[in-house]
């Protein structure tokens, strides 16, 4: 019985005491090993030395790479680095992990940080880190630093991403690496167990996953409106009057197309919020899950808005360049000669002057509001405002920007929608097609702003359900904030 009581309840793995001691060491006494001599290894060694750590680099040919590393870092053999270091970074390609098997006795009980990445996105495991853990079952494998580039390590966290995603099956090993991250100036993010390593390894391989749909949508709209405008302004004059207007394709047609795309994309920013609001009104509850397509659409509203802002800026730049064209100068000279020959030197048309003044003024205001929305969407700016301020800018001012952009298009069209001569090939003017979606969005927003609709939607978003017999009264303060509360999903 005394022998049973003296037996430890939890058996430590081999080298467990040394592993605990390593996690409690100070940076000046902790010896960091790096297995590998590539670009990432050299950058990592410089950052570790600058952070006050002792660094030992293990190489198969130490004499060849000594001059490439800082003088404070010792370049030695892989075996010596494995024996001496308390924590090691495995900075070799995953297909070469098997070449380190002879170091297994020396690495037993030590923490190994796998920094490798795959060549393509994997949907199923095992990950590189899990394969490394299978090769070294007596070591503590931590996945991390694979999302940090060599340039970020050299320049420091100020010029790159500061987050380092970490995961491991051993909490002590992960804690020691997290402490090392903080010492290097990075922010560790705990991703849980080593089973999350596959997700971490896939992170650097994604190519704008949240931008794919907005970019495809913007390109599709651009192609559609470009071809539509080309048929109206280039093909129609050639068919009817044998007039060659091909010179309009590089600048003028593009300049007409960009605002069309910008306004439709801006409408697509606020349309999913309206759809979600009407679905909640239809269901009578906020606890039903939105369809997957609507979920993805809501998540990608920022990208849709930035694409809209880009098209609006390009439209402004192209518009400023219009007077610089040779064709514009020739047209101006010809128009002047025609007026002089006709005996009407004064070509002032008050209606056209007012239309153009209003058109430019409203357009500048719309671009200014879009710029404010784009700046506020930046994480560095969004983190400095509270949720109410962010909502006011993105929702209230966002709808103001949409209203201004719609008014800008209406003034551009003026009375041309009612002139039969503007329907080339029986095709309506482009601005009529563009106005369909933003006007529908603005009308839907006005419908939600009605007291009877907005009050019910506010109740639903505070937990009221139509299917349950619960008396629910919305506070008076929220009733006065319908413009902000209704539009947020």
From TrEMBL:
Gene Ontology CC: one annotated term: endosome membrane
Reactions catalysed: 2 Cu(+) + NADP(+) + H(+) = 2 Cu(2+) + NADPH; 2 Fe(2+) + NADP(+) + H(+) = 2 Fe(3+) + NADPH
Principal location listed in the UniProt entry: membrane
Cell compartments where the protein resides: Endosome membrane
Pfam families: F420_oxidored (PF03807), Ferric_reduct (PF01794)
Membrane-spanning ranges: 205-228, 256-283, 304-325, 358-378, 390-411, 431-453
Membrane topology: Multi-pass membrane protein
The protein's required cofactors: heme b; FAD
Domain Ferric oxidoreductase: 260-401
Pyrroline-5-carboxylate reductase catalytic N-terminal domain boundaries: 32-118
Keywords (A to Z) from UniProt: Copper, Endosome, FAD, Flavoprotein, Ion transport, Iron, Iron transport, Membrane, Metal-binding, Oxidoreductase, Transmembrane, Transmembrane helix, Transport
Listed InterPro entries: Fe3_Rdtase_TM_dom, NAD(P)-bd_dom_sf, P5C_Rdtase_cat_N, STEAP_metalloreductase
Signal peptide per UniProt: none
One Gene Ontology term from the biological process aspect of the record: copper ion import
Superkingdom to which the source organism belongs: Eukaryota
GO molecular function: cupric reductase (NADH) activity; ferric-chelate reductase (NADPH) activity; metal ion binding
Similarity remark: Belongs to the STEAP family.
PANTHER family to which the protein is assigned, alphabetical: DUDULIN-RELATED, METALLOREDUCTASE STEAP3
Listed name of the protein: STEAP3 metalloreductase
Organism: Maylandia zebra (zebra mbuna)
